[in-house]
Design goal:
11-stranded mixed β-sheet; 3-stranded mixed β-sheet; binds zinc ion
Length: about 450
């Protein structure tokens, strides 16, 4: 069983319309201008949800609603860091998300430098013998630039679990080289974790040029002392929202094709590439389907998830609420604003031929077929694994994504308006063809 000629003709219509789309830019321009940074549970996050509801209604989408959920949030306070030996050198830094505060007055200690997380893990956890004991651990984990972003997965454990490994060895605090590919004097934040079995120590990232300086001083064999202050609050009770909007289906209206993005952002920057672009792309794609006039068989649902950045509360709440609803597809746009270069699916074997047809429709947009092991983005990935829902991945060119990811430089000017319509075209095609499929896509092999 394949797609009908009618379905494929409309796919071509959508593709052509999308390449002339002007809504997508207007959406991301508006979100970054009218709201800006919107960490989950903040006043700006609530404004973002109101903005999204109004934007989706304005585009003619149906069943638009904000679904509230409670959560506990982390809040950044003032922070600073400097080397105080061998000489005083101010450092550009940012606390990592979830970091506990330093004691009033801060912490000053000698640096125990490690080239990467593996080197720290290789150090003994016997406090008497570990270099980390009583010091500030510095992990100099470098990140490789790549179109598919694979350098992030390789480097990010230093940020995520570095404080656990440092505390296990008696360290007073953790500092890391920013997980990023830029050479700018900006620090990259992002979520980190603690482990109940070891003390919670403060953790922060310094800019890449500052990490380079620390590495050069380390190479000279001079003892370095670092002093920092860091204020924060954890576990603050708050409310956030998933925002939902739909293009209602027809004969299979109770089955869902989910186009996801996340509405929240880190508190630095404007949340333009992460993930204002994704919000704009999937919303514009659904709006295009709506505008093009032909109603899909299944319901196409835009889900703008809450708190992707620090806990996936929105994805989990969505799964709790809709776990019993048939999902034909889940996918998420959350890798910036670069062109889509590859399509991957994760559907039941009998539906792989339909995925191949989708790939053929995407090919004129410069998208390569990438196989059946798709991973659909962070929130959609949570849902795929938890509910065994079928998924798709539209891989964007992420070569420059990690230059500004989770930094104050994540601002609208980093988005090339010219690359957005191609994204809208890919998402509109994906949504339409998933909605028209003569076969269920699931359950996939995980
Ligand atoms: Zn993101």
């Amino acid at each position: 069983m394949g797609y009908t000629d009618d379905d494929l003709r409309h796919a071509a219509v959508l593709r052509d319309l999308a390449l002339r789309d002007t809504e997508v830019w207007k959406l991301v321009e508006a979100l970054t201008t009218e709201v800006g940074a919107r960490p989950a549970g903040s006043a700006a996050d609530a404004r973002a949800a109101s903005w999204a509801v109004a934007a989706c209604r304005g585009l003619g989408l149906a069943n638009v609603r904000a679904e509230s959920l409670p959560l506990r949030i982390w809040q950044r306070g003032p922070a600073s860091a400097q080397l105080v030996a061998p000489s005083t050198r101010p450092l550009v830094m940012a606390a990592l998300g979830n970091s506990v505060a330093a004691p009033a007055g801060g912490i000053e200690a000698e640096i125990a430098w490690y080239p990467d997380l593996a080197a720290l893990k290789a150090d003994t956890s016997d406090h008497e013998k570990s270099r980390a004991n009583g010091r500030i651990v510095f992990i100099d984990q470098k990140m490789e630039r790549a179109r598919d972003g694979r350098g992030y997965g390789a480097a990010v454990p230093a940020r995520a679990v570095g404080a656990i490994e440092a505390a296990r060895r008696g360290a007073l605090a953790l500092a890391i080289r920013s997980i990023g590919t830029d050479r700018d004097r900006i620090a990259h934040t992002g979520a980190m974790q603690y482990d109940l079995s070891v003390p919670r120590i403060p953790a922060f990232a310094v800019s890449v040029p500052d990490a380079d300086l620390i590495a050069r001083l380390n190479a000279r064999g001079e003892p370095m002392r670092l002093q920092f202050t860091l204020e924060s609050r954890s576990g603050v009770e708050a409310t956030t929202q998933n925002v939902i909007a739909e293009v209602p289906g027809t004969d299979l209206a109770d089955e869902i094709v989910l186009l996801g993005a996340h509405l929240d952002s880190w508190d630095l920057g404007q949340g333009a590439i992460d993930d204002g672009a994704g919000v704009a792309i999937v919303t514009a794609a659904a709006a295009l389907l709506q505008r093009a006039g032909k109603r899909p068989r299944r319901t196409v649902r835009v889900a703008l998830f809450a708190n992707e950045e620090n806990g996936f509360d929105g994805a989990r709440a969505y799964g709790d609420r809709y776990g019993n609803v048939v999902h034909q597809l889940v996918a998420e746009s959350d890798f910036g604003a670069g062109r889509v270069w590859q399509f991957k699916s994760r559907v039941q074997p009998a539906a792989q031929a339909l995925a191949d047809s989708m790939a053929q429709q995407l090919a004129p947009l410069g998208v390569a077929a990438g196989g059946y092991d798709g991973s659909p983005g962070p929130d959609a990935g949570v849902l795929m694994r938890r509910h065994r829902w079928p998924a798709a991945q539209l891989s964007q060119d992420g070569t420059n994504y990690f230059d500004v990811h989770h930094t104050e430089n994540d601002t609208l000017d980093k988005i090339d308006p010219a690359t957005l319509p191609q994204n809208v075209a890919c998402w509109a095609l994906l949504a339409w063809l998933a909605a028209q499929s003569p076969l269920p896509f699931g359950p996939p092999a995980l």
